[in-house]
Amino acid sequence: MTLAILCSGQGAQRADMFELTGAVPQADALFAHAGRLLGDDPRNWVRHAEPDALRENRAAQILCTVQALAAAALLEAVWPRRRCVAGYSVGEVASWSVAGMIDPHDALDLADARARAMDAASGGDERMVFVRGLARAQLAQLCDGRDAAIAIANPGDAFVVAGRQADVDAVADAAARDGALRVAPVCVRIASHTRRLAAAVPAFRASLAAVNVRRSLPGTRLFSGIDGASVLDVDAGLDKLARQIAEPVEWAACLAACVEAGATAFLELGPGRALAEMAGGAYPALPARSVADFRSVDGIASWLARVAAG
User: Fold this and answer.
1) Which of 36, 51, 124, 164 is most buried as measured by Cβ atoms within 10 A of its Cβ?
2) CA 148 to CA 127: how far, in whole Å?
């Protein structure tokens, strides 16, 4: 089998997010490293954090990254030999480590650097909103003339719009009037993947340049978030990883690339299960689960074995 491994973005941070990944020793060093960045062990931090603190950009990026890296450390022994990896927003930083190209401790530092660069570039007063049920061209037209843009393109005419709060609110209202099936706020307070964060791109690219990058693990393919293309050239891939801060994430293209690469199942590393649900909705013939669906590594291993057996 070929397993598509999906690294989650922000939005599903919660008090019990490390219930599985935080309970075994394989990830202790990763949690210790993340704790030095956060000022407390993430496993303890999330249990006492206020909701606003869980959604704060820098903390959220570190939490999501350590969750993905910890899940990968737990599952290393049970992965199938053939894998493809894609990451959603900050999840793309973790995806480079899951693919074996960046040390996981470096990936944590990069998540921190990425968040700091984004916060420095942000003009403040920003938000994101989810819109489903309008064609891309129609939604883009609603953004024209406003400080708002399509930030993420998901399968099934589902998009995330980001920008200045008043302009995003105006797009959301217009989308609802034009017949969008769903319009809902996203718990991220920064205009990720739009030109508003363009100043963060060179800063993060400099951080990427300072990291040692290896070849991907045997049997593993990594896809870039802004176009769903395979990372074949490291420098070009790092350029895209940096540009993703200020350019739309083409998540539908990433999932399609996984399927074209022969993926027979999807596993989201978490937190949450949004990516697994999207994959299952777009490709209902393929099994799609999240680490959040399981109570033990043995449960994940058993599911992978059943999928492999057909």
Assistant:
1) 164
2) 9
